[in-house]
Amino acid sequence: MHTDSIRQLPEYAALTRARKKIMWPLSVATIIAYFALILTIAFNPTALGEPIGDGVTSVGMLLGLGVILFCMLITGIYVYYANRVLEPLTRAIVQKAGAQS
């Protein structure tokens, strides 16, 4: 099946819409999280060095760990969405493309 005919399939249009629907919000959320940490480092580094309680753990360490955990959450959301929405659409496209070749 030719690439142009695959692009004409309704499943392909649904796949591209579904990818954009999840891609932009998750990308923006990730960029905001990273830039918030970097801007805090740049403009208020002393606040990041403040210890939490009487221990040695600082605010910066918790924020860094928070960004890592947030990105893991974002990845989990994407994997869930990909398995539930994107993968079935991809399989349908592959089936139709195979049937028409």
UniProtKB/TrEMBL annotation:
Transmembrane parts of this sequence: 22-43, 55-81
Database matches in InterPro entries: DUF485 (IPR007436), Inner_membrane_assoc (IPR052959)
Keywords noted in UniProt: Membrane, Transmembrane, Transmembrane helix
Matches recorded under PANTHER family: INNER MEMBRANE PROTEIN YJCH (PTHR38598)
Protein name, as recorded: DUF485 domain-containing protein
Species of the source: Cellvibrio fontiphilus
